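Continuing the series of single-chain predictions for the mutant panel. This is the parent chain; the variants come on the following pages.
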Amino acid sequence: MNHKCDECDRPATHRAVDVVDGKKIPVHLCDIHAAEHGLTGANPHLPVSELLNNFVQKHSGADTQSRSAENLHCESCGASFAEFRESSLLGCADCYGAFEGPLSALMERAHEGGTHHAGKVPRRAGVGERRQVAMRLLRRRLEDAVQSEDYETAAQIRDEIEGLA
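Parent structure:
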């Protein structure tokens, strides 16, 4: 189906979807109007690493918290948050603590609200290791249930922990 540009009579070469009040509104634009709306900057043939780098740069500077984070520096390696935004690489393990605020906001957006890494256990791991990982996960779930005052769920999780112990 050939569409014409929503702003002129040229053939539409770009399609976007705007969401307004929960309703999806398709937008069809020619090259000229797509450039005016800022839709032509993305190259579909970029390597994944570069796409991720662009994503991190765009989203880590989007809110005021990350703008104020520009002046943050890691005391261990001297890396700045601005350098992280440029390269998407942290200087050392201590950078996670130094940039905790802006990184956690970025991670939440990237992982759809998830803030904890649950991890995986290798198949070759012994039963004891699997039990430890399961216990850690259950304890974390128990803490979350207690904090949200969901005592019924907390009691069920407590019973699961007792069953594993």
